[in-house]
Specification:
about 0% strand, mainly alpha
Length: about 190
């Protein structure tokens, strides 16, 4: 817990430096948070390009909001709140532009097919299929369930942190996680 407090202090210090005009402070934040942010966005969107773009856009928003940032909660809470909102906006845009989504899906399928080694044992193929099915199922979850599930199961955030990001109680986070697991189970059981 002490290390997390130290990390939070480092993030707050970086934001203070950024507020005072030290642009290199954003590089420090990006170095620390880029990978977890891209991972979250990838699990949310299921699209590498979208995940990278959303992560980059998140840091642009952090920079643009540097003067309004208040360290009332952990920096990661604020950061993932921004990313979750951008993911939601991207998902809405995707539903209004399905032709773009289909083109992306075809590109990804071609790239994956090129990387599969025909000598892979069937177990590896089954594992990949299951992972792909899980990613697809996660994307079918409603926003609040998806964010809670990815933040808890993939990012390792606490109920309290997720509650701050989703602006709900820890008990609500617990219910959302249970509902997300139940829905994922029902989607994956037939497979």
């Amino acid at each position: 817990m002490k290390d997390q407090q130290h990390d939070d202090d480092d993030d707050v210090h970086c934001m203070e430096r950024l507020r005072q005009g030290d642009e290199l402070a954003l590089n420090d934040l990006m170095r620390r948070w880029k990978e977890p942010l891209v991972t979250f966005c990838l699990r949310y969107t299921g699209n590498v390009t979208d995940a990278c773009e959303i992560a980059q856009e998140t840091f642009v928003k952090v920079h643009g909001s540097r003067h309004r940032y208040q360290p009332s909660a952990a920096f990661s809470t604020w950061l993932f709140s921004i990313a979750a909102n951008l993911c939601r906006m991207r998902a809405r845009w995707r539903t209004r532009h399905p032709e773009v989504l289909e083109a992306d899906r075809e590109q990804v399928t071609e790239r994956v097919a090129d990387r599969i080694d025909p000598s892979d044992p069937s177990l590896e193929s089954d594992r990949r299929t299951l992972a792909s099915d899980l990613d697809s199922a996660i994307q079918k979850l409603p926003h609040d369930l998806r964010v809670a599930f990815v933040l808890f199961e993939i990012q390792g955030q606490s109920y309290r942190e997720i509650g701050q990001i989703l602006k709900c109680t820890e008990k609500a986070v617990e219910r959302r996680l249970a509902k997300a697991r139940e829905r994922l189970r029902s989607m994956l059981e037939p497979k």
